[in-house]
Amino acid sequence: MIRNRNNSWIQNALTWLRLLFVLLVPEVVNCFRPYSSYRFAPNGVCISPKHFVDVNDSANTFVMRSVPGEGDCMFLAVALATLTSMGLGGNDTLLRAISRETRDVVATVLELPSGHLVIEGKRLVTTQALLRSAAKGEGLSTEEYLTQLRKEGIEGGLYGGGPELTVLANVLRRPISIYEIDSDGIQQAGEQGKEKDVAFVRRMGVFGKNVFQDPLEALPESAILSHPWVTNGAYSWHLHILVVDTSRGEKHACVLLPQKL
Length: 261
Hints:
alpha+beta, Cathepsin B, Chain A, 6-stranded mixed barrel, two-stranded antiparallel sheet, 8 helices, 10 strands, 36% helix, Papain-like_cys_pep_sf, OTU domain-containing protein, signal
């Protein structure tokens, strides 16, 4: 059977997933520029700092757009990134509606009695193994976990984390990268006197890595990919989510939109 033959893969995948989930909720570090000091335009786009740069690849430059909090920010951020990737916008009312439906979709997938999900490359995990691991991490039964997952954040629903992002990458068939503010990059920006304009981010992991690739990348001179007039984040197959510290023990998910320079 495939499940028995790939059991070691599944265990490795679950270990990787738990590690990444921990990365989403680490201890708060001393940041040079806390999130509370960021300034935003009325549409939620961060205007100070204006640019977010991948510390490992300066060619990856983003603008950041925030979403409402209240415990649904991960689902809202993925919804906004997806809409923007199709050249569409989304107001808070629409995003909340999508977030509610997204919660239900993720719960429905997790409660499937059989089937595999891709984490990255050839690393697979069964829906039931992922559900049991996620529930154990929260100290809940699988039934309690699914009930809490379907609730909105304002009702005490679960925050989105590694298990939910795994499902979403598979449902959307898109890679989803998770970033955090890089403490070394923050110091570097401060030394350069650019702390008001630049924040450096570090990619912590990718759900669906090397699996869900953009089909247009193989198209010669794609009309979508080859023109610089495309707005920030529009038509980006890859979704990018930034997780920031808002206070001790509290996290908030935002959207990173690839910038056309």
